[in-house]
Write a structure and sequence with these properties.
The chain has 11 helices and 36 strands. It is of the alpha+beta class and 520 residues long. It has 3 domains: 69 residues, Macroglobulin (MG2) domain (Immunoglobulin-like, Sandwich); 182 residues, Glycosidases (TIM Barrel, Alpha-Beta Barrel), CATH 3.20.20; 123 residues, Immunoglobulin-like (Sandwich), CATH 2.60.40. Helix 1 runs parallel beside helix 2 and helix 8 packs parallel to helix 9.
């Protein structure tokens, strides 16, 4: 049984519509509190909802199916990023868009859609990309229109400073070199690197972006390779590439109005500079030495400190999906999704018609089977349904000021280890306080032997019981609990009052448990 909403996200004045594989009772809830009930046919439409995130349950006969609805004025602020890497005539547009709608993805990166790095738009209707993938302009248009109709932003990929061998003959004076006089190259005979803020190049690149905008892209994914960080021009001028990226982004955002930009800070270079420009998201492609779960958290938190208002995306590719042990890969997926999403960031990991990324060349990907598809759908339903908690702009991390060590406002008791740290054979707690109340995330690493996120993980089988005591002043005595592996379903319970503390008995199962205690 399925339910597919017509849009990945809605605005407050829009009717909610979609289709389901069977008529039934549609229950819309705010966490565990029922908001409305609708008897729906296979094609349905209900009225608009107030701004917020909602759990959805469809009951038909003795079956239940879960989904989520998000209603926001500006969906960009809760970006959930996916990808697409095929644009030939054979591609089924409806299947690609449906997967994005099922997961409530709000933007899709069109990876390697362009004719060349130097010239984005091809002269012909059908063409090969630089690595031989066949692309149809008609299919590109069809995909752009399809995603936009679903409320999803198509994002056109563009490398900001590369040309091929033929182009290098035109751009040698704008290129960057090492002290040995050799130009910086990607691959032996593939691409040559240009100074991204070279005046001549920047004028050319902006014109390419304008042509792609006129073709239909209103969002662009601007890529770089993470090196060089300092280089020399042909005239001996030394360039700081971080400064050049900033100049480039300032020029681009000044020249192209009404367009959104996502810049790739490869392994956090140079987020400290680019996050303060007028681009529209903070995006980091993660590599070693950022190899542990604590590193993912630090990248998100540091990015937010540069600009509180920009949505954050981590592209954290999972190499276990290149191997045969799908159970180990699935466990890695659950854990990385839970850690990144709990910090209010998007994990770029899936797209197409159900593909998973394990390699930076997105054409090399894993076509997910049923078990992986179910995980992706359950987790993204949960992320959308818990969006008001995950993306609360007022929330503050109080884990190390209110719990553990000498702190006594919030305490945890369990037969298994639990702390604020990421440690093997343990549980990790993160606590946020905001206008909506107290939200506690518990990540389950009880089965894991290390804290590396990009390796095969043991299946998440162990469970635990945790008693949480909270200084009760200002909090209601009922609480909501949700688990990502059970989709958008939340349940409610009443806390026990013990003198000045609320006491919650929480069963921990699966990778990610979220507890929310509203304020009075």
């Amino acid at each position: 049984m399925t339910i597919i909403f017509d849009k990945a996200t809605y605005k407050p004045n829009e009717n909610i519509s979609g289709r389901t594989s069977a008529p039934g009772k549609l229950i819309i809830s705010k966490y565990a509190t029922e908001i409305s009930v609708h008897q729906i046919a296979e094609n349905f439409e209900i009225g608009p909802l107030p701004e917020g995130s909602y759990s959805v349950e469809l009951n038909a006969g003795n079956q239940s199916y879960f989904s989520a609805i998000e209603v926001v004025t500006n969906p960009w602020q809760r970006i959930r990023y996916g990808f697409l890497s095929e644009f030939g005539d054979h591609i089924n547009t409806a299947k690609q868009v449906e997967w994005a709608k099922r997961l409530h993805l709000t933007s899709i990166q069109f990876y390697d859609w362009a004719y060349k790095h130097e010239f984005l738009m091809a002269p012909d209707e059908s063409y090969a990309d630089p690595l031989g993938g066949m692309i149809s302009k008609q299919k590109l248009k069809e995909l752009i229109v399809g995603y936009e109709a679903a409320g999803i932003f198509p994002s056109g990929y563009a490398a900001v400073y590369a040309v091929d061998r033929e182009g290098w003959q035109r751009w040698k004076d704008s290129g960057v070199y090492g002290d040995d006089g050799k130009p910086f190259q990607l691959g032996e005979d593939f691409l040559w690197v240009i100074d991204p803020a070279d005046k001549k190049w920047l004028l050319h690149f902006i014109e390419q972006l304008k042509a792609a905008r006129d073709f239909g892209f209103k969002t662009f994914h601007l890529d770089q390779y993470g090196w060089p960080k300092r280089a020399v021009k042909s005239d001996g001028t030394v360039v700081d590439i971080a400064e050049q990226f900033t100049k480039m982004l300032n020029a681009i955002t000044e020249q192209l109005k009404g367009v959104q930009f996502i810049f790739n800070n490869v392994n956090d270079f140079p987020t400290w500079a680019t996050a303060k420009t007028a681009q529209d998201a903070t995006y980091i492609e993660v590599w070693e030495p950022n190899s542990e779960y604590k590193d993912l958290v630090q990248l998100v938190d540091k990015s937010r400190s540069y600009d509180l208002n920009k949505p954050i995306i981590l592209s954290a590719y999972l190499r276990p999906f290149a191997k045969d042990d799908i159970n180990a890969a699935n466990a890695a997926l659950e854990l990385s999704l839970s850690v990144i999403s709990s910090r209010g960031a998007s994990h770029l990991i899936t797209g197409g018609d159900g593909k998973v990324l394990y390699d930076p060349y997105y054409v090399r990907n894993h076509q997910a089977g049923e078990s992986t598809l179910n995980i992706l759908e359950n987790y993204h339903n949960f992320i959308a349904a818990a969006g008001d908690l995950l993306f609360d702009p007022s929330r503050v991390d109080i884990t190390r000021t209110h719990a553990f060590g000498v702190n006594t406002e919030i305490s945890f008791e369990s037969n298994e280890p639990i702390s604020a740290n990421f440690a093997e054979k343990s549980m990790t707690a993160a606590i946020f306080d905001g206008d909506l109340g107290l939200t506690i995330h518990i990540h389950n690493f009880l089965d894991q032997e290390n804290m590396k996120w990009d390796v095969a993980k043991r299946p998440i089988l162990s469970s635990s019981n945790v008693k949480i005591s909270i200084l009760s002043a200002g909090y209601k005595d009922f609480w909501h609990i949700g688990r990502a592996d059970t989709s958008s379903k939340f349940s409610a319970a009443t806390a026990t009052q013990n003198e000045d503390k609320l006491v919650l008995d929480v069963a921990i199962t699966g990778a990610w448990t979220v507890i929310h205690i509203p304020k009075k």
